[in-house]
C-alpha cells in the first residue's frame, strides 16, 4: 500500500483508458477494501484482457462464466456485467467523438482540485454530479462514493493529508 500511495494515488491520470480501468476497478471495490483490489489488480488485467474496452465489449456468457470461475479476481456477476457495460459505454462515447479523459477532467476544469488536507469526505456534490452523468451514459457501479474514491485515485482531487509529502509534490507539479 505504501508504494501505491507514494507512486500512484492522487497522481493526475490523463489517459482515457487508464481512467476507465481505474473506474472499473473502483466499481469492483464496492463493499471490499482497496487493498483487496490492489492485490488482485494484475489478475484483473489478465482476466479482462488488459482492460481493452473493444475486447471487453464483445464478452459473452462464456466469458462471464470464465470470469466467475477465476479465483484471482472478485467473482461478482453484477460487477463483471457492469464492466462489460462500462466498456460499451466507453466505446459509445468514443464513437460519438467524446474523449473519456476530456469528459472526466471537464468536471474540474482540467486541473486537480486541492482539498484542505484535513478532512477526507467519502463523497461530495461534485462526485454525485459525475456519478449521475456516468450513469446517464450507461455506466454502473459508479455511485458518488465510488466516484469520489476514483477522483482521489486519479488525481482529480488531491486529498493527501496536509502534512503528507505527496500533497506538496503534487501541488508543485501543478505550477
Tell me, rounded to a whole number, the average pLDDT: 95
Q: How is the quaternary structure best described?
A: single chain
- How would you write the strand order of the largest sheet? 1-2
Tell the overall outline.
globular
What percentage of residues falls in helices of 4 or more residues? 55-70%
| Radius of gyration using CA atoms only | 16 Å
Q: How many distinct beta strands?
A: 2
Which structural category fits the helices and strands?
Answer: mainly alpha
- Unreliable spans: none
Q: Helix segment count?
A: 10
**Largest sheet properties:** 2 strands, parallel
**H/E element order:** HHHHHHHEHHEH
Distance between the termini: 28 Å
The percent range for strand residues is under 5%
Detailed description of the structure:
The structure is a single chain. 59% of the residues lie in helices and 2% in strands. α2 (16-29) runs antiparallel to α6 (77-95) and α2 crosses α7. It has a two-stranded parallel ribbon with strand order 1-2. The mean pLDDT is 95. The chain has helices spanning 2-7, 16-29, 34-47, 53-57, 61-68, 77-95, 100-106, 125-136, 144-153, 165-173; strands at residues 113-114, 157-158. It is mainly α. The two termini are 28 Å apart. The chain has ten helices and two strands, in the order αααααααβααβα.
What's the layout of helices and strands?
Layout: H1 2-7, H2 16-29, H3 34-47, H4 53-57, H5 61-68, H6 77-95, H7 100-106, E1 113-114, H8 125-136, H9 144-153, E2 157-158, H10 165-173
Parallel strand pairs: 1-2
Amino acid at each position: 500500500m505504501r508504494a501505491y500511495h507514494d507512486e500512484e494515488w492522487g497522481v493526475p491520470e490523463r489517459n482515457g483508458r487508464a481512467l476507465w480501468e481505474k473506474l472499473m476497478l473502483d466499481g469492483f471495490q464496492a463493499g471490499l477494501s482497496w487493498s483487496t483490489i490492489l492485490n488482485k489488480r494484475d489478475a484483473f488485467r489478465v482476466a479482462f484482457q488488459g482492460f481493452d474496452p473493444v475486447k471487453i465489449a464483445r464478452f459473452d456468457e462464456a466469458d462471464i462464466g470464465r470470469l466467475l470461475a477465476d479465483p484471482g479476481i472478485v467473482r461478482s456477476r453484477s460487477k463483471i456485467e457492469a464492466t462489460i457495460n462500462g466498456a460499451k459505454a466507453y466505446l459509445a462515447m468514443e464513437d460519438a467523438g467524446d474523449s473519456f479523459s476530456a469528459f472526466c477532467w471537464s468536471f474540474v476544469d482540467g486541473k486537480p482540485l486541492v482539498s484542505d488536507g484535513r478532512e477526507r469526505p467519502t463523497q461530495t456534490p461534485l462526485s454525485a454530479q459525475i456519478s449521475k452523468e456516468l450513469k446517464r451514459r450507461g455506466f454502473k457501479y459508479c455511485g458518488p462514493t465510488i466516484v469520489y474514491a476514483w477522483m482521489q485515485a486519479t488525481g482529480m482531487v488531491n486529498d493527501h493529508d496536509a502534512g503528507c509529502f505527496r500533497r506538496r509534490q503534487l501541488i508543485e507539479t501543478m505550477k
